Amino acid sequence: MSFDVKNIRKQFPILDTKIGKYPLIYFDNGATSQKPQAVIDCIQTYYTSENSNIHRGVHHLSQVATENYEHARKTIQTYINAKNDYEIIFSQGTTHGINLVASSFGKLLKAGDEILISQMEHHSNIVPWQMLAEERGLVLKYIPMNQAGELIMAELPNLLTTKTKLVSVTHISNALGTINPIAEIIQAAHKIGAKVLIDGAQSLQHEQIDVQALDCDFLVFSGHKVFGPTGVGVLYGKEELLNAMPPYQGGGDMIKTVTLEKTTYNGLPHKFEAGTPNIIGGIGFGKAIAWLEEQDLEGIKKHETDLLVHATEKLSEIDGIQFYGTAEKKGSTISFLIEGTHPYDIGTLLNQQGIAVRTGHHCTQPIMDFYQIPGTIRASFSFYNTKEEIDQFIIALKKAITMLS
């Protein structure tokens, strides 16, 4: 199998869009990915010929929808190599998955216990732990980072103590592109008996993760960043941990029996899936993963690395540019500022030329505080992007700088 970006692009109809007279150049993949025709067709098929609520229905449509939904769970299980399909909990997305763990696993913690996160986390991997710490009297600690946007791993042994119960870190920083040494972090945490949650929101679309080889205790990720629908995600958790945790929400599907006096809870995965789920979200997510598995994953990785190198080289030639996130190991994301300009102004002028980038703090205000800046311009690439698009981006960026200078 060889990687063919032209063939890949044909499968994403939105890439034919024009913004005014300009062809769309979509460099906001860190926020959400575009969807291949296979996923779009899957969603349309469900609503035109399969729509029904799942589980417990004896009629044909319910059985078809249930079968497709549970098949999606198994597809995702296989992709991340979870031991059991019931360790795959469908969620609303990464943020929801983290909140679920904070609420349910958090109830197993007591005052004085410690949670360790990092200085480069997305707000969704900071705020739930701050709320939990305040509620239960926990101690929240942070792994610091350096100017290159890398975690200072030498500090890890000093931060991990016998009181550390959970370490929750991002695999790839959404704001900086830094790829963190999660295998090393997991190993160190397990030595002192702590559990580990990995935020995989920015990594599953770029590389395959084997949860058993990695030995993480929890992994959270979102469908919409992995070429699937919005409003759906996955929490993977080890069976023994999920069984030990109380339910997150109460309602239909998470119950075994209900009387006016007492409720007994369902087994995994339904224990954590109260209410009617995002059925087509789950089915569409499974289809996105199945589609991704059919692609040249090694070719994708090489292509995205080539894009990152090409863009970095071209941007480095621009006077007054300042990069944020220069880690040795990086995903295909570049954050930068241009001296004498505001990122919002640059983003607006790029948009007028058909180019979609993200500007602002990227839900990582502690990172911006570290660099003492309000925000950055972020260009994040996927494997359907091309070097030619990057060249057009550079031309448009130079034009924007000239207009603002």
Structure in words:
The chain contains 14 helices and 17 strands. Helix 5 links the parallel strand 5 and strand 6. It starts with a helix and ends with a helix. With 405 residues, it is an alpha/beta fold. The protein has two domains: 254 residues, Aspartate Aminotransferase, domain 2, CATH 3.40.640; 109 residues, Aspartate Aminotransferase, domain 1 (Alpha-Beta Complex). The strands form five sheets. A seven-stranded mixed beta sheet has the order 4-10-9-8-7-5-6, with helices on both faces.
Outline of the structure:
The protein has 405 residues and is of the alpha/beta class. It has helices spanning 5-10, 37-50, 60-80, 94-104, 127-136, 156-159, 182-191, 211-214, 239-244, 279-293, 297-316, 343-351, 365-371, 387-404; strands at residues 18-19, 22-23, 25-26, 88-91, 114-118, 139-143, 164-170, 195-199, 218-222, 233-237, 255-258, 263-265, 321-324, 333-338, 355-356, 358-360, 376-380.
Question: In terms of topology, how is this protein built?
Answer:
Layout: H1 5-10, E1 18-19, E2 22-23, E3 25-26, H2 37-50, H3 60-80, E4 88-91, H4 94-104, E5 114-118, H5 127-136, E6 139-143, H6 156-159, E7 164-170, H7 182-191, E8 195-199, H8 211-214, E9 218-222, E10 233-237, H9 239-244, E11 255-258, E12 263-265, H10 279-293, H11 297-316, E13 321-324, E14 333-338, H12 343-351, E15 355-356, E16 358-360, H13 365-371, E17 376-380, H14 387-404
